[in-house]
Amino acid sequence: MTRSVPVPLIRGRMPRGATVPRQPKPRWLRVRAPGSSGYLRVKRILRGLDLHTVCEEAGCPNIGECWHHGTATFMILGDVCTRSCGYCNVVHGTPRAVDRDEPQRVADAVGALGLAYVVVTSVDRDDLPDGGASTFAAVVREIRRSAPECRVELLVPDFGGRDADLERVLDAGPDVLNHNVETVERLYRTARPGGRYRRALRLLERAGRHRPATPTKSGIMVGLGETRAELRTTLADLRVVGCDILTIGQYLRPSAAHLPVARYYHPNEFADLKAHALALGFRHVESGPLVRSSYHAHEQADACSAHAPG
Q1: d(CA 49, CA 108)
Q2: Residue 41 lies in a domain
Q3: How far apart are CA 159 and CA 162, in angstroms?
Q4: E strands within the chain?
Q5: Of 4-18, 36-50, 214-228, 288-302, minimum mean pLDDT range
Q6: Which CATH number is 114's domain given?
Q7: Residues 138, 155: Cα–Cα separation, whole Å
Q8: Is the pLDDT of residue 44 over 60?
């Protein structure tokens, strides 16, 4: 059903000189350019506090809608990633030293924006002994101190598979723990060469065992060349490790240097994937062309709580 673009890929990037015909985006992927007063207010606050967001760094198509409504996904630990994933628009290279004041500034932004729900993620920091776990924990503590009613969702890296670092983050008390598997196992070598599919699954399983009351969440992009059978296997694998919340969205190519889009999924296909995932037992599934991990995250958490067992 799904067919890959027949161009060889090297560690997640296009080979030099290779070209792939650009596919026009279907109508259901068109979004309005940002620029509302709400959008400009969020931008002004974030600039004033010298904070980064994954909304900007990853080129999220929903930035106009989310910022208009006063929500943003904070990206901590700088804006340079130590890994080079073939689908990601975040700059990779050698990061700067950790900013020790960043957790407080994130908490200040939460207060300034009046947030009741916040999502915090990061670049990969394989250069740090704990992968940035201590900074994640510090952010949760600072938000809890200054805005105790605000719920906190963390979208974490894999911490190199180290249980102690993951547990440090969980012990800080996030309301939701998210780690995206991103794609099917076969495509990890080209799409996510720094990651490991089984390591991602193990993180989610370990999180569920260490903090059973904290919902776990993961996300998948489609359109990288996966097959329907591979998608079904990935969904089943996520349920085996107890993942509660699932997001499924369309991969959009950030630039000609990134992996090509194998094809665009129709909204009806996203509906079918959602139905299949719910039948597997996920407590909540968000599936659609423009769905991203933190898109309507507070609504996902509320729906998950409403379907909690017992």
Answers
A1: 8
A2: yes
A3: 6
A4: 52-53, 73-76, 80-81, 91-92, 117-122, 151-155, 176-178, 216-222, 245-250, 284-287
A5: 4-18
A6: 3.20.20.70
A7: 15
A8: yes
Label the pairing between strands 216-222 and 176-178: parallel
* Whether the predicted pLDDT of 303 surpasses 90: no
pLDDT tens digits along 245-278:
999 999 989 889 999 999 999 999 999 999 999 9
Distances (CA, A) of 219 to 9, 177, 178, 250, 251: 23, 12, 8, 11, 12
Tokens of 74: 């904070």
Is residue 16 domain-resident?
no
Residue 8: inside a domain: no
Helices and strands: H and E segment counts in the chain: 11, 10
Query: 268: exposed, middle or buried (C-beta count within 10 Å: 0-12, 13-18, 19+)?
Result: exposed
Short-list 55, 75, 177, CA closest to 122: 75
245, 235 Cβ separation under 8 angstroms: no
Domain that holds residue 185: 34-306
* SS3 at position 96: coil
Q: How many whole angstroms separate alpha carbon 34 and alpha carbon 64?
A: 4
Q: Indicate the number of domains in the chain.
A: 1
Residues 74, 54: Cα–Cα separation, whole Å: 6
Q: Please report whether residue 24 resides in a domain.
A: no
Report the C-alpha gap between 310 and 305 in whole angstroms: 11
**E strands in 77-116:** 80-81, 91-92
Map tokens 């906190």 to a residue: 152
Find, among 81, 26, 34, the residue nearest to 60 by Cα.
34
pTM: 0.84
pLDDT in tens, 122-142: 999 999 999 999 999 999 999
